[in-house]
């Protein structure tokens, strides 16, 4: 299936069951791209007329929410309602961060039902209508137990989103053991999913090539993610508005190319500001050490923990977003920047080309000299791309389009 082809008339299931395990597990942390996708699904399905339930795996079993409970959790994820205090049961999971224990406590307080793992099929059978459609879009809680429970407890269908297969194609960028865990997860998806959702056609091609090693692949649909850009707030104090700046946005992990930009800035005699927006990730000690040794008054600034409005303000004033990534499933930062009319300089990746076409300036991620020349030209205005030109040429994909395609089949 393809989101761009003619599609059959939508036939809604009697109910949908959205897995929100990832959002619970990452409570209190800055959201990643996958977190935002799971939250976008929650927000949209709360407005859809089809009855909605939500499922989460906690440290003590499973919790099931009805629509009201799901809406209450969404308000907490938004920050419009504060998390409650940890309950007594949270003492049994003291090893988890406090925000997660508070989130799991609220989940239990709001739950329609709760159960130990072995009782999951019975809980779903008791509360869900037959034929419920289960959606998992967060790469979390993708287990044989859940798939079996949905099928046998609710006579349901399973839809799973795969965001990328980077752990299998680039295992050297991952935490130890991640490639094996991801491979096992993808095998379960091949065995247990009725339909697989992909964020790009490139991701679909790569994922299906991996799954084809183990047998026939489930039907799939490629639907670009929605790109929503918040209203810009105020610039952080660490940004000097009188000097030009460039932005790299995303988790600081090996495949994102921060090392290349640090090398480029080290080669410049009069460098502009480089604003590194994102939390520190994994397997990147050499980069972390270089960041720790930066001059606090120098041109390179590490800015973790920014709000979406602050990031939008930084992007709006940037000479360009820099995206020297070595692998992507979608590439949300360049899409967000282009939606704001901000020029993009990116590695030449199939997923980025699929979403953005010829909008970015594409450079080989290994050519340090070419990155330096391009950045210096943009900094001095010799290659200035006007924001209005970028915005005029890029029509960002929307969540409305995404759900119009996906919900026909789920």
TrEMBL record:
Domain of life: Bacteria
Annotated InterPro entries: Glyco_trans_1
Any GO BP annotation: lipopolysaccharide biosynthetic process
Name assigned to this protein: Glycosyltransferase involved in cell wall bisynthesis
GO molecular function, one term: glycosyltransferase activity
Protein source organism: Jhaorihella thermophila
CDD domains the record matches: GT4_MtfB-like
Keywords for the protein's UniProt record, in alphabetical order: Transferase
Domain Glycosyl transferase family: 243-358
Top-level taxonomy: Bacteria, Pseudomonadati, Pseudomonadota, Alphaproteobacteria, Rhodobacterales
